[in-house]
Specification:
The protein is of the alpha/beta class. Helices cover 42% and strands 24% of the residues. Strand 2 and strand 3 form a beta hairpin. It is globular.
């Protein structure tokens, strides 16, 4: 009987691949491509949220948000709610609001588009402040074809829903804009969107 050893996957700079014949032993060593999401910008965004007294964030895994989600997960002062779908974040933020806890929703723009029912029928109807940080995929410089259509409609949909939105495009202005957006959401009791741009989030 020939037994097969489970392949081993290695990541790192010393990449190599080995094939050993006989009772087969295969080792794969692949070179990990660094992810060019800006950890520095992510840290500035996260610090700004903490300075606004945000203590709960909801999120799904998303490439541009990976560092933000990790920072929240590692912070004992922050509650990270992992969602099955983005629309659930509307209810989570509503519950936090009623409990006197400030929150933020982290999502991709496609996730925002999937949340419209909850935003319109719950947040708008019952005057729930939502601070939405939306990674603006499909805009200038986008290389993934499947992201482009969402990018085309993100701003028109925000405008059609009457949701104020602003761009986060430079570290120098990020903290101020997050603070102002949080203030507006709380004072107007409505959703406010911050679009995280490629210029801020991507290091190329």
């Amino acid at each position: 009987m020939v037994k097969w050893a489970a392949p081993k996957l290695y990541r790192g700079a010393n990449a190599r691949q080995e094939h050993i014949s006989g009772p087969c032993r295969i080792e794969y060593k692949t070179k990990a491509k660094p992810m060019p999401v800006s950890s520095a910008s992510s840290k500035v965004i996260y610090e700004a949220l903490k300075e606004c007294d945000v203590r709960l964030v909801s999120a799904l895994p998303e490439t541009w948000l990976v560092h933000l989600i990790r920072l929240a997960d590692d912070d004992p002062e922050m509650i990270l709610v992992r969602l099955a779908k983005e629309e659930e974040g509307v209810g989570i933020s509503a519950g936090a609001h009623f409990a006197g806890v400030k929150s933020a929703m982290l999502m991709q723009n496609h996730g925002f588009l999937a949340s419209i029912n909850g935003i319109v029928s719950f947040a708008h109807l019952y005057k729930i402040p939502l601070l939405m940080l939306i990674s603006y995929r499909g805009s200038l410089g986008e290389r993934d074809p499947w992201q482009t259509q969402g990018g085309n409609v993100t701003e028109p949909v925000l405008q059609a829903l009457g949701i104020p939105y602003f761009f986060l495009d430079a570290m120098e202005t990020t903290k101020k804009r997050i603070r102002q957006a949080q203030t507006l959401a709380e004072s107007s009791l409505q959703p406010v969107a911050l679009l995280l741009t490629r210029d801020l989030m991507w290091e190329e």
